[in-house]
Design a protein that fits this description.
The complex is a heterodimer of chains A (121) and B (151). Chain A is 76% helix and 0% strand. Chain A is elongated. By secondary structure, chain B is mainly α. Chain B starts with 23 loop residues before the first helix and ends with a helix. Classes of the chains: A mainly alpha (121), B mainly alpha (151). The interface between A and B is medium-sized, with 20 and 19 residues.
């Protein structure tokens, strides 16, 4: 598998976390810029879910199939939940929530590679 | 009744958050929810597929998952009773990560597979060690505020 999508998710996730933490440090609320980057992250995660499902349909099987399916279901909800929960907060702590989603997405890619090494980073 | 105490120090200029789920609590709950989700999913898979491989580690994973879920729910609810349960679950969590962390280093044979709390949470960037401390600090602010309001 081409590692471009997982790598892009790590880069966008870490950039989002940095951007969001900067907003927290500057005492800013969640703005459109942050939500736009969060949207990009969401799209990338959905693309990755599609790639992995296609691979499973094609007959590939990782050792930890149950864990992988759990990841496939949970992954797309990370930016979604962070966006809703963070947008409810009208203070600097909204962006901090979004930073958690960015970091979580990056960590998820490393874990995915451990579960199924064909998912390269 | 709370004992009389000196007047509380003035709050910072920003308006104080009106619930345990707002302000810094928002971040705390987000991290707790993430751990509740990952710990319960992980424990569920471990126990369902291969419990005999590491029964102690997997049971502790499940216990940790319950504690994280409880903390997430009670911090979000934020009522006085919920706060009391949250203090309890954060305390159990802190005791758990310290005890299991020490146990996993002293007796690695019992832990052929890791739990959330193995090595003081080293597999999770030590977040499991830091999280209950922040939780307890946040809850202490709330119990102080409630006491100040009473007197």
């Amino acid at each position: 598998m081409n590692g471009a999508v997982p790598t892009a998710i790590i880069v966008v996730g870490l950039a989002l976390a940095g951007y969001a933490l900067l907003m927290t440090a500057l005492n800013r609320r969640t703005g459109l810029g942050l939500l736009a980057v969060l949207g990009v992250l969401e799209i990338l995660l959905l693309v990755l879910v599609g790639i992995i499902v296609a691979r499973l349909v094609g007959g590939g099987r990782p050792a930890g199939l149950a864990t992988l399916i759990g990841y496939l279901i949970a992954m797309p909800f990370v930016p979604l939940a962070a966006g809703l929960w963070g947008a409810m907060e009208r203070s600097r702590w909204g962006p901090a929530v979004i930073a958690v989603a960015g970091l979580a997405a990056a960590v998820l890619m490393v874990r995915l590679h451990e579960i199924w090494p064909v998912i390269r980073v | 009744m709370a004992p009389p105490e000196p007047a509380p120090s003035p709050e910072p200029a920003a308006p104080p958050p009106d619930s345990t789920r707002t302000g810094p609590g928002r971040l705390l709950i987000a991290v707790y929810a993430l751990f509740a989700l990952s710990a319960s999913a992980r424990a569920g898979v471990q126990i369902a597929t291969n419990f005999g491989h590491a029964p102690v580690a997997y049971s502790l994973s499940a216990f940790a998952a319950v504690v994280y879920l409880l903390a997430t729910v009670t911090l979000t609810a934020g009522s006085p009773t919920a706060r009391r349960i949250a203090v309890l679950s954060c305390s159990v969590e802190l005791a758990g990560v310290l005890a299991v962390g020490t146990w996993s280093l002293a007796d690695p044979a019992t832990f052929p597979d890791a739990t959330v709390w193995s090595g003081y949470g080293s597999g999770y960037g030590f977040v499991p060690l830091v999280l209950p401390i922040f939780g307890l600090l946040w809850l202490r602010r709330w119990s102080r505020r409630a006491r100040a309001r009473q007197t």
